[in-house]
């Protein structure tokens, strides 16, 4: 399979303007994401998608391929589709790699790529919830699965409810998984989902992937053992470095 890895990188951010260009132990976040992504054994090519000339210039300075996209997109999926079309090559799958995870493990990308077999329409990663705190954190999106490891539903709430068991013990009685936000799209499906109108479930939970499920698309899920941490605010930088055990 020929797979394109796309790293979206926007300069504008309500909470953290210029986030891709922040310095993390001597390298920008964008460069770290690109270098980690480039270690993947399954990607045919890697490109940075941006709407900002400052980011494009910086990316080119460390040898990255860059495609320019429009500033306004309703979702990251729409930006990926434009970037794919602007790249000018044909691929079987496109993987959307988070641009705010500077220490992403390349094996996670390969894990996702391994289930892109031509039949898979959409794919993503998940990791087991091993604590009450994580399970009931509404900032963590949980996944309910069928027997084929395809998503039945994504929610900020805990599903399923376990009758007759204290909530603090639920994670010990059921295999709950939380979402790790990296997506793979089969090329034809990527185009189709960008044409869908926002759905009622998507609006309720503020989760784009529910639009796909409501419209009958299947999302295959693979379990990763590697935790990943994104940087949303300046304060997150030191926290993520400590969580990942990174040393200068």
Kindly describe this structure:
The protein has helices at 29-37, 53-61, 76-87, 106-114, 132-135, 187-193, 200-205, 209-214, 236-244, and strands spanning 3-9, 23-24, 27-28, 45-50, 65-68, 93-96, 122-128, 142-145, 151-155, 177-186, 219-223. The N and C termini lie far apart (37 Å). The protein has nine helices and eleven strands. The strands form two sheets. Strands 1, 4, 5, 6, 7, 8, 9, 10 and 11 form a nine-stranded mixed beta sheet that branches. The protein has a two-stranded antiparallel ribbon with strand order 2-3.
**What share of residues are in beta strands?**
15-25%
Q: Can you tell me the CATH class?
A: Alpha Beta
- Element order, helices and strands? EEEHEHEHEHEHEEEHHHEH
Mean pLDDT: 92
The number of helical runs is 9
Basic shape:
globular
Q: Which runs of at least 5 residues are low in confidence (pLDDT < 50)?
A: none
Radius of gyration: 18 Å
Q: What fraction, in percent, of the residue positions are helical?
A: 25-40%
Biggest β-sheet, characterized? 9 strands, mixed
The rounded distance between the terminal residues' Cα atoms is: 37 Å
Structural class: alpha/beta
CATH architectural label: Alpha-Beta Complex
Number of domains: 1
User: Would you count the extended β strands for me?
Assistant: 11
Query: Could you give me the name of the CATH homologous superfamily?
Result: Spore Coat Polysaccharide Biosynthesis Protein SpsA, Chain A
What CATH calls the topology is: Spore Coat Polysaccharide Biosynthesis Protein SpsA, Chain A
């Amino acid at each position: 399979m020929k797979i394109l890895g796309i790293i979206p990188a926007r300069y504008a951010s309500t909470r953290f303007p210029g986030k891709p260009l922040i310095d993390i132990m001597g390298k920008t976040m964008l460069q770290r994401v690109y270098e980690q992504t480039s270690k993947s054994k399954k990607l045919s090519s890697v490109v940075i998608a941006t709407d900002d000339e400052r980011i494009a210039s910086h990316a080119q300075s460390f040898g990255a391929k860059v495609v320019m996209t429009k500033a306004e997109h309703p979702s990251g999926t729409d930006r990926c589709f434009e970037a794919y079309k602007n790249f000018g090559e044909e691929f079987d799958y496109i993987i959307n790699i988070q641009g705010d995870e500077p220490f992403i493990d390349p094996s996670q990308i390969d894990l996702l790529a391994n289930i892109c077999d031509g039949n898979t329409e959409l794919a993503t990663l998940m990791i087991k919830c091993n604590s009450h705190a994580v399970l009931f954190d509404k900032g963590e999106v949980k996944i309910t699965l069928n027997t084929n490891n395809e998503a039945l539903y994504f929610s900020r709430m805990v599903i399923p409810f376990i009758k007759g068991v204290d909530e603090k013990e639920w994670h010990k009685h059921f295999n709950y998984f939380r979402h790790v936000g990296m997506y793979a799209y089969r090329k034809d499906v990527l185009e189709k989902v960008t044409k869908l109108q926002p759905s009622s479930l998507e609006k309720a939970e503020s989760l784009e992937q529910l639009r796909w499920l409501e419209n009958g698309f299947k999302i295959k899920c693979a379990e990763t053992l590697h935790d990943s941490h994104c940087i949303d605010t300046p304060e997150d930088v030191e926290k993520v470095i400590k969580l990942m055990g990174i040393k200068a």
